[in-house]
Design brief:
Number of helices: 8
Number of strands: 10
Low-confidence stretches: 275-286
Radius of gyration: 19 Å
Strand content: 15-25%
Shape: globular
Mean pLDDT: 92
Length: 286
């Protein structure tokens, strides 16, 4: 939970990206505080969220670069009860330092449920940005195709997902039959999402030395687009901290739609799956 040194490291990455001509820098989930909600100091650190958000706004303006500063865990006071609650939020900051949009994590991982408040039934919103129409998702949201569908039907072309995914998370059985099963999940799911939604996916995951802090960081940060192998040579096959600068040609996204007609079909009033998300009746339940 070395929040200041973590911020300084993030600043260096953003400065390096801007120096290489990048238009957008994306950081991982929990990059400032790590995920240690059981620590007595964690909540107080989350109370400093606005300080660091404003610092990122100034950094974006100074270096003329858009920033998605991973996620920032925010502590707020419930107006009704007076109790503190924690929310996990991703922001899109433009190159002038303006906040163009925000997203509060909706689909919480099991270990987050006792600590974080979900955005629940709030809609997924598309953000109009200098790099195109963007949708923000966070980590476990990737597991839900419905989140992508809601964003692309609203016009998103790029889905940005800060994550904190470790190889030690999830199923002990999965690890017993395939120690890389989480990596397999990441690689296959992100690739599938690009094709089934004719979009680009920016996946920025936490990295570190294997075994660091008793966690087995997955890393594998990448940009995925239809037709191509994953982009991001420095990070896409690595679990260590690092940075990839990627040239994202949206022509691949447009050509995927011209070939697959996914968005066209979804916009059709006669499309078959408009029932998505409805509750099943008793007769339909298995």
């Amino acid at each position: 939970m070395q929040i200041e040194s973590n911020y300084a490291k993030a600043v260096q990455f953003v400065q390096d990206a801007a120096g290489q001509g990048a238009h957008l820098a994306v950081l991982p989930e929990y990059h400032l505080t790590n995920w240690v909600p059981h620590d007595a100091k964690f909540s107080d650190l989350c109370g400093q969220w606005e300080i660091y958000l404003n610092r990122y706004r100034a950094l974006a303006k100074e270096h003329n670069i858009c920033i998605v500063p991973g996620t920032i865990v925010e502590r707020h006071q419930d107006e009704k009860t007076g109790d503190h609650k924690l929310i996990n939020v991703a922001y899109f900051i433009d190159n002038k330092g303006e906040i163009l949009g925000r997203y509060q994590k909706k689909n919480l991982w099991h270990g987050e449920l006792p600590y974080l408040t979900s955005s629940a039934h709030e809609p997924h919103n598309v953000i109009q940005t200098p790099v195109g129409p963007v949708g923000l998702l966070i980590c476990w949201d990737l597991s839900y195709p419905e989140a992508f569908r809601e964003l692309i039907t609203a016009g998103a072309k790029i889905i940005i997902a800060p994550t904190f995914w470790t190889l030690s998370a999830g199923s002990a059985y999965g690890r017993s039959v395939n120690p890389r099963y989480c990596a397999l999940f990441i690689e296959s799911t992100i690739t599938a999402r690009t094709f089934e939604n004719t979009c680009a996916v920016v996946f920025a995951n936490a990295g570190g030395r294997k075994g660091s802090q008793s966690l087995n960081y997955a890393g594998l940060s990448r940009v995925a687009v239809p037709f191509l192998e994953a982009l991001g040579e420095e990070t896409k096959n690595s679990s260590e901290e690092g940075m990839s600068v990627v040239d994202l040609d949206m022509k691949h996204v447009e050509q995927a739609e011209a070939t697959l007609h996914v968005r066209e079909n979804l916009a059709n009033e006669d499309w078959y799956y408009h029932h998505r998300g409805r509750a099943m009746t008793g007769r339909e339940k298995l």
